[in-house]
Design brief:
Ribosomal_uL22_sf; 5 helices; about 130 residues; alpha+beta; 3-stranded antiparallel β-sheet
């Protein structure tokens, strides 16, 4: 069972946030939390908070399963571009330079890797019956 958490309109450029997101993509949740806690980049604190939110969303969906037994990992993490605030800065000789203040949207999906897959067992037995 997977859980999703979204972070919208973060005032950081998507390029800077993707560097931090690439560190934790595919990692176990405990390892990702420890990586984010000691990462000095500015997006790490926001992603740590987002990961904690995704964990609590997963706990709300799966009240009967213990967090320690679930073996959670980060299934997908995507960083998309958000709105761009455009500003003008005075430049020499009466000109103006455009400043683009970028933002981003982050979507984080965590999943449990300890789920039994019943459908693959059923497919194997049906193939054996055909032979």
């Amino acid at each position: 069972m997977e859980a999703v958490a979204r972070l919208r309109n973060v005032p950081t450029s998507p390029r800077k946030m993707r560097v931090v997101a690439d560190l934790i993509r595919g990692q176990k949740v405990n390892k990702a939390l420890s990586l984010l806690k000691f990462e000095p980049k500015q997006g790490a604190a926001r992603l740590e908070k987002l990961l904690l939110s995704a964990i609590s969303n997963w706990e709300a969906k799966n009240e009967d399963v213990r967090l320690e037994d679930a073996d959670l990992y980060i299934k997908t993490i995507t960083v998309d571009s958000g709105r761009i605030l455009k500003r003008l800065r005075p430049a020499p000789q009466g000109r103006a330079h455009r400043i683009r203040k970028r933002s981003n949207h982050v979507t984080l999906v965590i999943d449990s890797s300890s789920e039994p897959e019943l459908s693959s067992d059923n497919n194997d037995s049906s193939e054996d019956n055909k032979e």
